[in-house]
Amino acid sequence: MLTPLVLGALAVALAGPLPRALSRWTGLRRTPSAAMLLWQSTALAAVLAALGAGLSLATDRLWLAPVAVGDVVVAALAGLVTVVVAARLLLSGHRTGTALRRMRRAHRARVDLVARTDGGVSVLEHDLPVAYCVPGMTGSRIVVSRPTLTRLAPEELAAVLEHERSHLRARHDLVLEAFAVLHRAFPRWVASGSARREVEVLVEVLADRAACRTGDRRALVSALLELADSPAPAGALGSAGSLAARVEVLRDTRPHRAQALLVLALAAAILALPTLLVVLPWLAGLR
Amino acid sequence: MGELEQAVLDALWDADGPSSGREVHACLEGRDLAYTTVMTVLDRLVAKDVVVRERDGRAFRYAPRLGRAAMTAELMREALEATGADRDQALVSFVGEASAEDLAALRRALADLT
């Protein structure tokens, strides 16, 4: 009886209180790679714990004779909840994935038709300065508009392009997609919204870091200012509020090795400890 | 193939009105293309919903669904919408909308780095 209880409590803790606490810990962004792993392991562990709680409750009731009618009812309900959780995730994954890929494919096809390529970058003729990337398995694109090329100094442009290339290299789109899927599947009674917002900030912080590694930090900050300060049309909202967070991390050049190690250890523990201490004994007990 | 599609679409954009396959082929004569190749590309552009065709007697006439500037504007709108907060981030933008505090933080950082 202990296994489903522990896993259930764990699922609740990992789905609500922990993500909420992590999203309030803004210092976490100073170790973005470790923080990204922690968010991913928390999300994965929450899903696994929720599925494990349902399954172990069902097996708890059915594996030991004598099995009463009440046990069968409880087991059936637990099984049903587990199936619903899994189905919501799969459905959300399928819907989000196909919609994203269709939109990206259509966008990329039209970019290729209307943009001129210049040094591996697609250039759109438009008055508004933009820089973005279109991720994709079968071919990604970095797109800028003409004012981005003319207004930015060469080292600023290099920083912008390196930022975008790092998004594509590290497949940040897949991470964003996973958290979008989670948020779509459980929008309310799980703190999936704050997890998703924080992960969106972290991919930008990571790409900023990558751009600073090969280039000049000052060029990146002045490029951010130049592109952020251009009037965007009404309704065209970006990830609001994340910019100040990015700047704060960019200003901080100190290494945070102790924090990185701590966060990595926490990320590993969240996945490993429940598996070793709860799930493996439960599975062993089923034989 | 992509470069050829771009050339055919450019020819349609530069034309005065809907063009026949022969006219498009004539526009691209410097490229030494077979007429059937031009028709294949036109059909492909129709399939992509970038070009619309209308029947004219026994043949078709082709025209871009949107002008060059309108198609660029459509892409820009998509790019700005798709990168917003609480969107699925189909496209990943360098910088989203900036608040006054964001800009102030950027200016302070830039001043400190100088």
From TrEMBL, chain A:
Q: Source organism's superkingdom?
A: Bacteria
Record InterPro entries: Beta-lactam_resp_regulator (IPR052173), Peptidase_M48 (IPR001915)
Looking up Pfam families in the UniProt record yields:
Peptidase_M48 (PF01435)
CDD domains, per this entry?
Answer: M56_BlaR1_MecR1_like
Name the family.
Belongs to the peptidase M48 family.
- Which lineage? Bacteria, Bacillati, Actinomycetota, Actinomycetes, Propionibacteriales
Co-factor binding comment = Binds 1 zinc ion per subunit.
Q: Which UniProt keywords apply?
A: Hydrolase, Membrane, Metal-binding, Metalloprotease, Protease, Transmembrane, Transmembrane helix, Zinc
Report domain Peptidase M48 positions: 124-183
Gene3D superfamilies hit by this protein: Metalloproteases ('zincins'), catalytic domain (3.30.2010.10)
Q: Cofactor(s) for this protein?
A: Zn(2+)
The name of this protein is: M56 family metallopeptidase
TM helices/strands, residue ranges: 6-22, 34-57, 63-91, 260-284
From TrEMBL, chain B:
Q: Which InterPro entries match?
A: BlaI_family, WH-like_DNA-bd_sf, WH_DNA-bd_sf
Query: What's the superkingdom here?
Result: Bacteria
Protein's UniProt keywords contain Membrane: no
* Keywords, sorted A to Z: DNA-binding, Transcription, Transcription regulation
Name of the protein described by the UniProt record: Transcriptional regulator
Q: Is DNA-binding one of the keywords? A: yes
Name the family. Answer: Belongs to the BlaI transcriptional regulatory family.
**Gene3D superfamilies to which the protein is assigned, alphabetical:** 6.10.140.850, Winged helix-like DNA-binding domain superfamily/Winged helix DNA-binding domain
Report the coiled-coil segments: none
